[in-house]
Amino acid sequence: MEYVIEMCHITKEFPGIIANDDITLQLKKGEIHALLGENGAGKSTLMKMLSGMVNSTSGDFKIFGHKPSEDKYLYRRMGVLIEEAGLLGSMTAFDNMKTKALALGCNDDKRLCELLELCDIAHTGKKKVKTFSMGMKQRLAIAMTLIQDPDLLILDEPTNGIDPKGFESIRKLLIRLNKEERKTILISSHILEELN
After folding, report:
1. Which helix (H) or strand (E) holds 164?
2. pTM of the model
């Protein structure tokens, strides 16, 4: 059995608060995994540790069988969306994709167009992102996480603040990414019904 993420006694402390306390967990490759908990439960903090944004106070973890300190290319196999997507409102969806792709060292316009199509935002054309609905912005943000064709997606509450139609669109997209694109997905939510 192959695990994408293996956490062993992970703890993260901030002054006066323990955000994550002694977490040991193994997540299987090729599945959708969910972190469920109320706001402030430590879901985002755990995801930030896994994606290299913050360090744990104690404990250890492996991604794809390697500790991050052992493999400098490890994070290239991950697509991460935590809190703000960093979208540029004065630009189109394609221009946002192109800007991020160039920053990552990618220059494949055909791939970017395919990702926009996959995430159902190719039809937006010259429309500026600042005029997008919340659901459209979230689908664009997910498309941006896919630029380097990652094996693992870490998505922090990607349906937060989205209407039912937008929610269903993102739900179908995540299932498609898992089934057709073979992505392992770790998603967080504070609403149980979202994860069924």
Report:
1. helix 164-179
2. 0.89
